[in-house]
Structures are given as structure tokens and as C-alpha cells.
What we know:
By secondary structure, this protein is α+β, with helices and mostly antiparallel strands. The protein has helices at 2-10, 13-36, 38-46, 57-78, 85-98, and strands spanning 104-112, 115-124, 127-128, 140-141.
Amino acid sequence: MWEQLRRFSALERTARGIFLRAIVLLPLISLSLRLRGFRKTQASLQKFLAPPAASGAESSRIRADLTARMVRAAVRDCSLDHPTCLEESLAIWSLLGREGIVCELRIGVRKHDEKFEAHAWVECGGAALNEPEAMHEHYAAFDAALSSLPPGPQ
């Protein structure tokens, strides 16, 4: 615990803020997905998205990378229940969208050892943010990014 507190204290102010928002957002997303489903959860998160920011691509990419790192840190260090890739991706997508950073929530599928598997990730500028080992390349992604689909019936 002391090591986690020391690492948190060493973060810059912006990173600490993102980390704290992720700690709060992850369990809320998890609960919403279980109770309300994907479409209604995404529609709720979409209400808080900002219009695309006019900042440069490089500064947006730096902020996107920082956000993905802080959400992964929140997943690793503070979760009572390990969030799924969908919960993690929705948190990243939502936090970036609130900053006006354009990104896409992607979901892909594959059949592996006779089992159907699905995976979610976030892309910013064509690069996967929460995929350090390019795991998403083993999945066939749906053609349309889910961040641009309208919410289903309420």
C-alpha cells in the first residue's frame, strides 16, 4: 500500500486527476454494464463527451497515451474486481471524449480452440491505446467503430 501511495504522489497533477477519475469510473461502468447493458451504458457516457478539441494531433496523442496508462494503473492497483477489456476501454473512451479527443471504441471477435472470443480496445489516430502487445490484431474488428453508432432504443 505504501508503495502505491508513493507512486501516486510521484505522478504529476494531471496524471493524478485522470487516475482518480478512472478509479471512480471503472466500477460505475461495470455496474452499469451488468444492470443496463452495453448500449445504455455507452449512451450514458456519451452524454458527457465534449466536441472535438482543436488541439494538435501530437498533444492529443500524448494526452491519450497518458489517459490509457492511468486507466491501466487504476485497473491494476485499485480494482476489487478485475475489469474486463470492455470496461477498461469504455473508461478510456469516455475520459478522452470528455477532453474532446477523438477516439474510437473497437470490438473484435475470433474463434480460438473452438471457443468464440471477443475483445475491446480504443484507437486514437489509428493506433490502439490500451494494447501494448497488439493483442487486438488477432481479432476481426467490426467495420464500424462503436463510438459512432447511435444508442439503441431506450
